[in-house]
Write a structure and sequence with these properties.
- There is one protein chain.
- By secondary structure, the chain is an all-beta fold.
- 0% of the residues lie in helices and 47% in strands.
- The strands form two sheets. Strands 2, 4, 5, 6, 9, 10 and 11 form a seven-stranded mixed beta sheet that branches.
- The termini are far apart.
Length: 126
Amino acid sequence: QVQLVESGGGLVQPGGSLRLSCVASGRSISDYGMGWFRQAPGKEREFVAAISTSGGSTMYADSVKGRVAISRDNAKNTVILQINSLKPEDTAIYYCAGTYVRFIAPLKNDAIYNYWGQGTQVTVSS
């Protein structure tokens, strides 16, 4: 069993940056594909970014490509999502998730994830 805890959200002005962290406990995440998803009020949850077990492969949603970077430190059991040039439409609850699937291609599908964090709120507003 893996427990995931996100942090780093908050209120930020448009154009600002945030660094979201996901710390895992219970088991090492080194064997898990990891992803970030978000859900805005009244909208369905959507894929943001994913990273393979080794960290060698990453994938991003078109809506955030070029502004977001996902990384992982398996030794620290941590996954990071750096978001730059934030826009009001980035406002959402951001969730970290882990899956037994090791390869990058399926990782944008939230149905394959086995573990989810509780989420961290990101609000982009002036």
